[in-house]
Design goal:
CATH superfamily: Response regulator
Radius of gyration: 12 Å
Strand order of the largest sheet: 2-1-3-6-7
CATH topology: Rossmann fold
Number of helices: 5
Mean pLDDT: 95
CATH class: Alpha Beta
CATH architecture: 3-Layer(aba) Sandwich
Number of strands: 7
Shape: globular
């Protein structure tokens, strides 16, 4: 199983990647929406973690685009911003992770 992690914070990418690896999930990293979408199209992952505040836009505004490319993938939004979790889920995200990340919450989402 593969995942794509889209976040401009290296520490978040490494932490998520390490947690996923322990669960037998290989992950690819992207630090902006453009690179993330390219990796999603090329790799066809079953899980997508996408930050909201990225250098080339807001992840929440791209949920529909990612859903169109990978309708069956689980898409989880990540953000430190309060109050956007309901909007992200209404737009098609399968779940929401608040920063700082909680390992137990990550494990709940990927099972």
């Amino acid at each position: 199983m593969k995942a794509v992690i889209i976040d401009d914070e290296i520490d978040i990418c490494l932490l998520l990647g390490m947690i996923l690896k322990k669960q037998g999930i290989n992950s690819l990293l992207a630090h902006n929406l453009t690179d993330g979408l390219e990796k999603v199209i090329a790799e066809q992952p079953m899980i997508i973690f996408m930050d909201n505040n990225l250098p080339d836009g807001q992840g929440i505004d791209q949920i529909a685009t990612f859903r169109e490319k990978m309708p069956k993938a689980k898409l989880f939004m990540i953000s430190a911003m309060e109050g956007i979790s309901e909007k992200a889920i209404a737009l098609g995200a399968d779940g929401f992770l608040e920063k700082p990340l909680n390992m137990n919450k990550i494990m709940e989402l990927i099972k």
